[in-house]
Amino acid sequence: MRSPALALLALICASLLACSGSGRANSTAVPTRTPAAVASATATADSTSVIAASIDQQNLQFVPAAVSVKVGDVVLFTSHDPSLHMIKVDSTIIAGTMKNGDMVRWKAPAPGQYKITCDYHPQMSATINVSP
Fold this sequence. Notes:
The protein contains two helices and nine strands. The chain has 132 residues and is α+β, with helices and mostly antiparallel strands. A hairpin with a 2-residue loop joins β5 and β6.
């Protein structure tokens, strides 16, 4: 009786572990608190969206420091840094804690200039310029 129960418990644990991986490699960021435009843009940037620009996190910097895209374009943020990072777009968190190799997509919601920052490293900043 004990053996089937242990087997079931092992199966459940294995399933939970498989589902609890970072899952960030192709995930869409889910904001924790956001203005409506940025939240909507983040939620609709799925893994099938075409990437118009990329910003890497490396050596405690966003590289490049500025990109230009059009409304609806997707910007891919990738961490190539051993340090943990956070991504904020105009003070809205779009990625809580990013580890080396993690990726997050952000879809440009409206024309304007968006400031990118990392709370863990205040010296990190970038700009996304969005045209109509």
